[in-house]
């Protein structure tokens, strides 16, 4: 078949679309479209191949999946896509970190110049090496208690200074500052820049963490990065960094990636935020919300105080309306008559008791007088006493010559015994 070639005037370069890439030159360049078509024709000759590797990226857009696979030995990667018709035939549990083999066919997009592989089959080989190591480390740290909720430190309600560890001029830094300043305009930051991927990620982050943790003004530390594929986030699952975070005395917030990213730092940190913006929301209170809360509390307090005062005033008025308080003298007047009656009764009882006791006393006095020796002596009797004081009851007690004292009704006189006399003589 004869190919039609447009006529080219002498001294003019042929159109780029007419020049094959291998015949191109500075004077006669080929076009981008012709180059891409040539590459696509070459790539289509490769056919399908089976490849083994670890899934490092898995993004589902609509019903299709776009991802990347990595060679664990050399870190070489390829991009792949899985159309919805193929995805329906694949295992449902394919995910990041899986070690798989896939049947792929090279595909080159002429319009965009993108090179990728279309997957027609894929199955598990086992956990990827990195995922397996991470799972072993996860189990070890969990057994040591580094994931326990009891050891996690609470965040301050309103931190005086927020420590921020992130990449210099990164979107994560901008997001944290923007959200935090919107929520609390007076918020203060102390930022320590560190590499957020690569070989410097772990030592830089540990150094920044120690510096901020030693600052007494820093109340909380945020480690922020704007997400990424598992390969670039490996530093945030490094054991050295995890143990440094666990040993920090200042609360640490992990804000490494998006919701689907889950490095081990999320489990060790005192709080896990899904994004840097979410970290700012979790660390800094909203001034508008706090003002509204204060307003609500003030309103509730005013209402409660008003209710209490009103209730107490009603009770006070009820007490004041009682007769005893409205006219307290009436209670005294009502009791005065009773008091007077009791007083009269008391006086009557006392008088009668005194009269009875006076009569009793008179009777006792009469009885006492009747029994008194003085009454006997008044009737003419006398009592004889020895000088020692003993009463003479027997004549033998006073023999002849014994000095005695004789007591009569009025006074006493001394006498001397003449001895016992006969009864007849005594009568005479």
UniProtKB/TrEMBL annotation:
<dbReference type="GO" id="GO:0009318">
    <property type="term" value="C:exodeoxyribonuclease VII complex"/>
</dbReference>
<dbReference type="InterPro" id="IPR025824">
    <property type="entry name" value="OB-fold_nuc-bd_dom"/>
</dbReference>
<dbReference type="InterPro" id="IPR003753">
    <property type="entry name" value="Exonuc_VII_L"/>
</dbReference>
<keyword id="KW-0540">Nuclease</keyword>
<dbReference type="InterPro" id="IPR020579">
    <property type="entry name" value="Exonuc_VII_lsu_C"/>
</dbReference>
<dbReference type="GO" id="GO:0008855">
    <property type="term" value="F:exodeoxyribonuclease VII activity"/>
</dbReference>
<dbReference type="Pfam" id="PF02601">
    <property type="entry name" value="Exonuc_VII_L"/>
</dbReference>
<feature type="region of interest" description="Disordered">
    <location>
        <begin position="1"/>
        <end position="31"/>
    </location>
</feature>
<protein>
    <recommendedName>
        <fullName>Exodeoxyribonuclease 7 large subunit</fullName>
        <ecNumber>3.1.11.6</ecNumber>
    </recommendedName>
</protein>
<keyword id="KW-0378">Hydrolase</keyword>
<feature type="compositionally biased region" description="Low complexity">
    <location>
        <begin position="1"/>
        <end position="11"/>
    </location>
</feature>
<dbReference type="GO" id="GO:0006308">
    <property type="term" value="P:DNA catabolic process"/>
</dbReference>
<keyword id="KW-0269">Exonuclease</keyword>
<dbReference type="Pfam" id="PF13742">
    <property type="entry name" value="tRNA_anti_2"/>
</dbReference>
<keyword id="KW-0963">Cytoplasm</keyword>
<dbReference type="GO" id="GO:0005737">
    <property type="term" value="C:cytoplasm"/>
</dbReference>
<feature type="domain" description="Exonuclease VII large subunit C-terminal">
    <location>
        <begin position="146"/>
        <end position="339"/>
    </location>
</feature>
<comment type="function">
    <text>Bidirectionally degrades single-stranded DNA into large acid-insoluble oligonucleotides, which are then degraded further into small acid-soluble oligonucleotides.</text>
</comment>
<dbReference type="GO" id="GO:0003676">
    <property type="term" value="F:nucleic acid binding"/>
</dbReference>
<comment type="subunit">
    <text>Heterooligomer composed of large and small subunits.</text>
</comment>
<feature type="domain" description="OB-fold nucleic acid binding">
    <location>
        <begin position="31"/>
        <end position="123"/>
    </location>
</feature>
<comment type="similarity">
    <text>Belongs to the XseA family.</text>
</comment>
């Amino acid at each position: 078949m004869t190919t039609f070639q447009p006529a080219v005037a002498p001294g003019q370069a042929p159109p780029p679309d007419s020049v094959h890439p291998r015949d191109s030159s500075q004077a006669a360049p080929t076009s981008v479209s012709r180059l891409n078509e040539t590459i696509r024709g070459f790539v289509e000759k490769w056919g399908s191949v089976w490849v083994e590797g670890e899934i490092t990226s898995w993004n589902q857009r609509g019903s299709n999946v776009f991802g990347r696979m990595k060679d664990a030995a050399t870190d070489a990667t390829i991009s792949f896509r899985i159309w919805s018709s193929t995805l329906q035939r694949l295992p449902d549990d394919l995910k990041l970190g899986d070690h798989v083999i896939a049947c792929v066919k090279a595909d080159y997009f002429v319009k965009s110049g993108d090179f990728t592989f279309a997957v027609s089959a894929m199955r598990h080989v086992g956990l990827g090496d990195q995922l397996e190591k991470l799972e072993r480390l996860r189990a070890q740290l969990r057994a040591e208690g580094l994931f326990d909720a009891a050891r996690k430190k609470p965040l301050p309600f309103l931190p005086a200074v927020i420590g921020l560890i992130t990449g210099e001029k990164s979107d994560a830094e901008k997001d944290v500052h923007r959200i935090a300043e919107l929520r609390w305009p007076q918020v203060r930051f102390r930022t320590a820049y560190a590499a957020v991927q690569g070989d410097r990620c772990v030592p830089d982050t540990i150094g920044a963490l120690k510096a901020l943790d030693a600052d007494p003004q820093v109340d909380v530390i945020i480690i922020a990065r704007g997400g990424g594929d598992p390969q670039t986030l490996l530093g945030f699952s490094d054991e050295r960094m995890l143990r440094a975070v666990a040993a920090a005395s200042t609360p640490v917030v992990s804000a490494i990636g998006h919701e689907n990213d889950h490095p081990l730092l999320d489990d060790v940190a005192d709080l896990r935020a899904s994004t840097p913006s979410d970290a700012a929301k979790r660390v800094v209170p909203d001034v508008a919300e706090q003002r509204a809360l204060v307003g609500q509390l003030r309103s509730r307090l005013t209402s409660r105080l008003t209710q209490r005062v009103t209730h107490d005033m009603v009770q006070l008025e009820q007490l004041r309306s009682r007769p005893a308080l409205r006219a307290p003298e009436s209670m005294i007047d009502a009791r005065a008559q009773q008091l007077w009656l009791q007083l009269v009764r008391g006086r009557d009882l006392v008088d009668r008791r005194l009269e009875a006791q006076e009569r009793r006393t008179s009777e006792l006095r009469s009885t006492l007088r009747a029994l008194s020796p003085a009454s006997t002596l008044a009737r003419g009797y006398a009592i004889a006493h020895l000088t020692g004081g003993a009463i003479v009851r027997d004549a033998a007690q006073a023999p002849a010559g014994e000095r005695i004292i004789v007591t009569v009704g009025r006074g006493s006189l001394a006498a001397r015994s003449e001895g016992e006399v006969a009864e007849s003589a005594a009568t005479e």
